[in-house]
């Protein structure tokens, strides 16, 4: 009887279908008459305003009082995740972008990066490494910049109008390379004029080396 009251024949629908938010497809209402925006996880629903079945959602009346509507929930009461308007089931692995991979778990999600976050230090064969975006590739890659290009870029960097703030970073100094006498200690730091990671050295002396033993005099 309620269905007969709600579902009128013939159908009277607006000429222009509604504009749905991202992740909510156009579907037929509960009467199979007019197109409406499917309700998403956690949104109110009733006989007319149906949930998005493509995401495994049904109208859950378990916590609703008599005469009121329900709430869109997973059919098996499974917890899920909603990311950028799209729903994922509990345990599902997905990639919101090519750079990260996520795992839906217990109503939340954990993500790990798919691009390496390595640091390339200057070397003799590549004194000016720089990380750039490559057209057609997801992850940025390291390239070896020519010296003239590097000098031009450094000139822009040190300009008082264009110089960005530099957050200092560096490792601890290593142990001295020599157990006695003059040696070297090294570290990786960006505390320099260009705020660029580089290997730095400094002299160190742990203790003086003992004098060599005197040679025995020759026996005549």
TrEMBL record:
<protein>
    <submittedName>
        <fullName>WISP2 protein</fullName>
    </submittedName>
</protein>
<dbReference type="InterPro" id="IPR001007">
    <property type="entry name" value="VWF_dom"/>
</dbReference>
<dbReference type="InterPro" id="IPR000884">
    <property type="entry name" value="TSP1_rpt"/>
</dbReference>
<dbReference type="InterPro" id="IPR043973">
    <property type="entry name" value="TSP1_CCN"/>
</dbReference>
<dbReference type="Pfam" id="PF00093">
    <property type="entry name" value="VWC"/>
</dbReference>
<keyword id="KW-0964">Secreted</keyword>
<dbReference type="InterPro" id="IPR036383">
    <property type="entry name" value="TSP1_rpt_sf"/>
</dbReference>
<feature type="domain" description="IGFBP N-terminal">
    <location>
        <begin position="1"/>
        <end position="75"/>
    </location>
</feature>
<dbReference type="GO" id="GO:0031012">
    <property type="term" value="C:extracellular matrix"/>
</dbReference>
<dbReference type="InterPro" id="IPR050941">
    <property type="entry name" value="CCN"/>
</dbReference>
<comment type="similarity">
    <text>Belongs to the CCN family.</text>
</comment>
<dbReference type="GO" id="GO:0007155">
    <property type="term" value="P:cell adhesion"/>
</dbReference>
<dbReference type="GO" id="GO:0007165">
    <property type="term" value="P:signal transduction"/>
</dbReference>
<keyword id="KW-1015">Disulfide bond</keyword>
<feature type="domain" description="VWFC">
    <location>
        <begin position="79"/>
        <end position="145"/>
    </location>
</feature>
<dbReference type="Pfam" id="PF19035">
    <property type="entry name" value="TSP1_CCN"/>
</dbReference>
<dbReference type="InterPro" id="IPR009030">
    <property type="entry name" value="Growth_fac_rcpt_cys_sf"/>
</dbReference>
<dbReference type="GO" id="GO:0005615">
    <property type="term" value="C:extracellular space"/>
</dbReference>
<dbReference type="InterPro" id="IPR000867">
    <property type="entry name" value="IGFBP-like"/>
</dbReference>
<dbReference type="GO" id="GO:0008201">
    <property type="term" value="F:heparin binding"/>
</dbReference>
<dbReference type="Pfam" id="PF00219">
    <property type="entry name" value="IGFBP"/>
</dbReference>
<keyword id="KW-0732">Signal</keyword>
<dbReference type="InterPro" id="IPR017891">
    <property type="entry name" value="Insulin_GF-bd_Cys-rich_CS"/>
</dbReference>
<dbReference type="GO" id="GO:0005178">
    <property type="term" value="F:integrin binding"/>
</dbReference>
<dbReference type="GO" id="GO:0045597">
    <property type="term" value="P:positive regulation of cell differentiation"/>
</dbReference>
